[in-house]
Amino acid sequence: MPDYIKTHQPCKACGSSDAMVYNDDGTTHCFSCDRHGGSEIDKINKKINEDRDEELKFIEINPEFIPSGISSAIADRGIDKETCETYGVTVDGTTHCYPYFNEDGEHLGNKVRKPNREGKKDFFFKGKDFDKCVLFGQSNFKRGGKYITICEGELDALSAYQMFGAKWPVVSLKSGASSVQSDIENNFEFLDNYENIVICFDNDTPGKRAAKKAAELLAPKGRIVHLNLKDANEYLSNNKIKDFESAWWNAEAYTPDGIIAGTDLWDVLQQGPAKTAVDYPFDGVDRFTYGIRMGELITVCAGTGIGKSSFLREIIKHIFDNTEDGIGMMFMEESVRSTAEAMMSLDLSKQLHLPGTEYTQQEYREAYKRTAGSGRYFFFDHFGSNSIDNVLARIRYFVKAVKCKYIILDHISILVSSQEHAYDERRTIDECMTKLRMLVQELDICMIIVSHLRRSIHGSHEEGLNTSLSDLRGSASIGQLSDIVIGLERNGQATDLIKRNTTYVRIIKNRFSGKTGICSKLFYDESNGRMRQLSKDPKDLKPEDDD
Questions:
Q1: How many CB atoms lie within 10 A of CB 145?
Q2: Any idea of the CA torsion for 201, 109, 104, 401, to the nearest 10 degrees?
Q3: What tens digit of pLDDT does each residue of 368-412 get?
Q4: 170: which strand partners?
């Protein structure tokens, strides 16, 4: 009787997913349709399995870190040879080698599991740059999909993958529960490619604590499996595969803490009003708003060419100079180079993009190091429109993975233009603003967005017409869902140069203090591209008519 060299293979003839076997004599047999080797069907089946093997083929092992042992079953743990081969795991007696790779697929080394003299497990890494390694098993699954499972350790990842019948991707943390935050932050984009992220950690106190942390980082996609046994491998070892599948399918979406009884609010009330995170760069704006706070959604609006970008960049620079927080910048109408160079221009007080501006390469390099190259600015590299869900995912990455506390979105109209219901501007803006508002509250960040104004029958905003909430283009939800709305007013057609470059800042809505009206008078200096406050005296804030 021939020996089976491959089992549980798909059969093209009858459609069975796992009834075909390959024999060592070159023949095949399907236990479902009873077809035997030698037919054209077998050639088709062979091609199917070659394609499947190629897809699951493990990345080439770096000869520098050739592991001891061979790919074989881990019999005492119930893990079969095929699963070990898929993940590239090798076994030498009681010693296991788990290969690790970087995000480019380069094999950096092996994590070795070896019992010590006391019978306990010793783990060590043989290779280089373990901190650059991605999650265990990540190199096998790069396409994204409906489900991915994260386990606490390699053995549990192998066990879960096998119990799923190799159907769903499974990865594991690099160093158990202790590395949960760094592992998820460093591999956030990979995990975010999946619709559901199932967290299957050990059923002990460290595992439960780590699972909660993982779910917080991965919300709202994270779902926690509640195990009755210790871990996934214990289910496999005890042949309780059905029980594990049931626990996995019943994984619960993480519900964050946040429901507070009124009787428990005293300590919160004792903290006083919301604290200012940073002030505005202009004294008048600060006098009305009492600064910028976390959890705020701020909208800046003005007519075309009135200086929204200049005003916004002065605020960004001020935040950068007066905090240590990261800033995520999403300027949807310009390239990341333009955005970065604009911040460098402010740093040097020189308009670097204009022909004839004099600067040295040393000045340019130093300005880059102080701004874009500082490690605190992060840019969204996408020109033009994008879907709201994609933008929300990138904002979540800015906040969770790279620690941004301030998000700048310029502007909402570009975002709206790509949505499913873009033909219905009001409806689409309502949807976008609602999602942005919820995200600001969930992540406790400050977001500043730019909104255009609608055409007015009373005059032109480009000629200094007063701004109001009713002028916001598209939907009343922009004003309703914003904490602060700032309008910029300037007569860009004035014949007098001073008047043409003088901007009045009007607070249109102020949820924090209620103070509204013109609060600052700013002058745009064409020689250096900077905005400065002309006067702190409220008496000087009345706009003058153009001659």
A1: 12
A2: 40
A3: 999 999 999 999 887 544 678 788 888 999 999 999 999 999 878
A4: 149
Output the six-digit token pair for 107: 């094999």
DSSP, res 513: T
Mean pLDDT, to the nearest integer, of 522-529? 88
Query: What is the Cα gyration radius of the chain?
Result: 30
The arithmetic mean of pLDDT across residues 210-215, rounded, is: 94
412's enclosing H/E stretch is: helix 412-416
> Sign of torsion, CA 72 77 82 88?
negative
Q: Examine the pLDDT at 539 and tell me if it is beyond 70.
A: no
Write the pLDDT tens digit of every residue in 492-506. 778 888 888 888 999
CATH ID of 4-56, from 2.40.50, 1.10.8, 2.20.25, 3.40.1000: 2.20.25
| CA–CA separation, 89 and 70 (whole Å) | 8
Cα distances from 93 to residues 74, 76, 342, in angstroms, run 9, 11, 61
> Which has more pLDDT, 221 or 426?
221
**DSSP codes joined into one string, 47-66:** HHHHHHHHHHPPPPPPGGGP
CA gap 396, 439 in Å, rounded: 8
Separation in Å, CA 329 to CA 160, 381, 406, 442: 40, 10, 8, 19
Question: Is 0.70 surpassed by the pTM of this model?
Answer: no
Pick from 432, 431, 478: nearest CA to 451 = 478
Tokens 């790779």, residue located: 101
Spatial distance between the Cα atoms of 500 and 497, rounded to a whole number of angstroms: 5
pLDDT (0 to 100) of residue 456: 61
Instruction: Give the pLDDT confidence score for residue 491 in this predicted structure.
Output: 85
Enclosing H/E stretch for 141 = none
| CATH class given for the domain over 283-347+357-454+475-503 | alpha beta
Residue ranges, comma separated, of all CATH 2.20.25 domains in the chain are: 4-56
The residue among 84, 156, 96, 92 whose CA lies nearest residue 122 is 96
- Count of positions (residues) in the chain: 547
What does the pLDDT average to over 93-98? Answer: 86
Q: What is the pLDDT of residue 486?
A: 94
Strand partners, 238: none
Kindly state the DSSP code that residue 357 receives in the 8-state scheme: -
CATH 3.40.50.300 boundaries in the chain = 283-347+357-454+475-503
Domain with CATH 3.40.1360.10 in the chain: 63-253
Sequence-ordered alpha helix ranges (H) in 264-381: 266-270, 283-289, 308-322, 336-348, 361-370
330: amino acid identity, one letter: M
DSSP string, 268-303: HHHT-SPPPSB--SSHHHHHHH-SB-TT-EEEEEE-
pLDDT band at 18 (very low <50, low <70, confident <90, very high): low
CATH, domain 63-253, list 2.60.220.30, 3.40.1360.10, 3.60.150.10, 3.30.470.30: 3.40.1360.10
